[in-house]
């Protein structure tokens, strides 16, 4: 379709390091906005532009409003308004890291549901104290995977955090075999244990 061609051209220009900032928003606004895998991919790709995507921030911010996403046509049933919101928040934070703190509650809520917010949190070293404070309550979550991920992220910032160490060690000793193996890998990665 014409959208596929426009998107491929935009991606090609970006890959060739051609200046696209002046036309980025105009091209993005030509895409049919819907809850689909393809459209979610456009949002996700926009975040990969990092600072070169600053002109797209107003366009991305509209997707952070859950009611906006609920009004969009549904093409793929498993792409919920929450999925689009989460992808938009991650893209915004990749483009402008100063906005990470503003979206911290949303990013923390995504821990255990998707790896993308976890990766963004681990990469957000400037906000480490706020991230640790936000994740500490998750250490006591009854969802063992979610608490293990929180411990893994915290230990990346504070390797001696006693609560995070105890949580991850507990997840190695208890739970499903796959969960224990995953937690053991994370514990070894962070501590060498």
In short:
By secondary structure, this protein is mainly α. The chain is 64% helix and 0% strand. It has helices spanning 2-15, 21-28, 37-48, 57-61, 66-70, 81-95, 104-109, 115-123, 128-135, 144-157, 162-173, 177-191.
Defining key terms:
single chain, 193 residues, mainly alpha
Question: What would you note in describing this structure?
Answer:
This protein is an all-alpha fold and 193 residues long. It contains twelve helices and no strands. The longest helix is centred in the middle third of the chain and has 15 residues, at 81-95. It starts with a helix and ends with a helix.
Q: What is the terminal-to-terminal distance?
A: 52 Å
Count of helical regions? 12
Helix and strand pattern: HHHHHHHHHHHH
How many strands, which pairing sense, and closed or not: the largest β-sheet? none
Question: How many β-strands, per DSSP?
Answer: 0
- Radius of gyration based on Cα positions: 19 Å
Instruction: Indicate the overall shape.
Output: elongated
Mean pLDDT reading: 90
Helix content: 55-70%
Uncertain runs: none
